[in-house]
Design brief:
By secondary structure, the chain is mainly α. It has one domain: hpI Integrase, Chain A (Orthogonal Bundle). The protein contains 9 helices and 3 strands; from the N terminus they run αααβββαααααα. Strands 1-2-3 form a 3-stranded antiparallel sheet, with helices on one face. Helix 1 runs antiparallel to helix 2, helix 1 packs across helix 5 and helix 2 packs across helix 6. The radius of gyration is 18 Å and the shape is globular. The termini are far apart. This is Tyrosine-type recombinase/integrase. InterPro entries: DNA_brk_join_enz, Integrase-like_cat_sf, Integrase_catalytic, Tyrosine_recombinase_XerCD. Keywords: DNA integration, DNA recombination.
């Protein structure tokens, strides 16, 4: 569900996502790259925290995540990211000079949460959705609103069942607002 029991939105809007991306760049490289991985990929916080040097696919400009919700340890998915972001990861985390098994962020889940909360505060994003899960949901909503096919969004998010992914198509987007605005205009004379 994209709303909690009180009806509050659990995802970042496109404007909030943009504000988050800008705010992330105001932090040091470790916090910024961590926050941007979550925003650009929609990954789970635990999936980001277990990323290693070898999971950054520079040739394909993708980040390869082990899908933690699967019942097997050998299920991976590649999520494309901007090429300049891959270059930033290479530079910031010295990927060319580290072992492939070295973690990018040898941090705890609590520290990862703190990083995201700091960036959310800097971005002025408040509420239930100001969280790693809000970034994940915001990614799903943004992808469906930009016309990315559900099966691709499903793969990127690591959902086993497409019905989980389909909830992102229920968010109010520009097209739905444009349709509703027809009700707000007085009839032509």
């Amino acid at each position: 569900m994209l709303r909690d029991r009180q009806g509050y939105r659990k995802y970042l809007t496109p404007k909030e996502r943009e504000t988050f991306l800008v705010a992330a760049d105001r932090f040091d490289d470790e916090v910024a790259t961590f926050a941007l991985v979550l925003a650009y990929t929609g990954c789970r916080i635990s999936e980001a925290l277990e990323l290693t040097v070898g999971q950054i696919d520079t040739a394909e400009s993708a980040i390869v995540f082990r899908s933690l919700k699967k019942r097997r340890d050998d299920v991976f998915r590649a999520v494309p990211v901007p090429g300049d972001f891959i270059e930033r990861l290479v530079r910031v985390h010295d990927l060319r000079n580290r072992q492939v098994s070295a973690p990018l962020w040898p941090k705890s889940r609590t520290t990862g949460w703190a990083y995201i909360k700091q960036v959310m505060a800097e971005a002025g994003v408040e509420g239930t959705h100001a969280s790693p899960k809000g970034l994940r949901h915001g990614f799903g909503v943004a992808a469906t609103q930009k016309g990315i096919p559900l099966n691709i969004v499903q793969r990127w998010l690591g959902h086993a069942d497409i019905s989980m992914t389909a909830i992102y198509a229920d968010a109010i987007g520009d097209e739905e607002r444009a349709l509703a605005s027809r009700l707000w205009r007085p009839p032509a004379a």
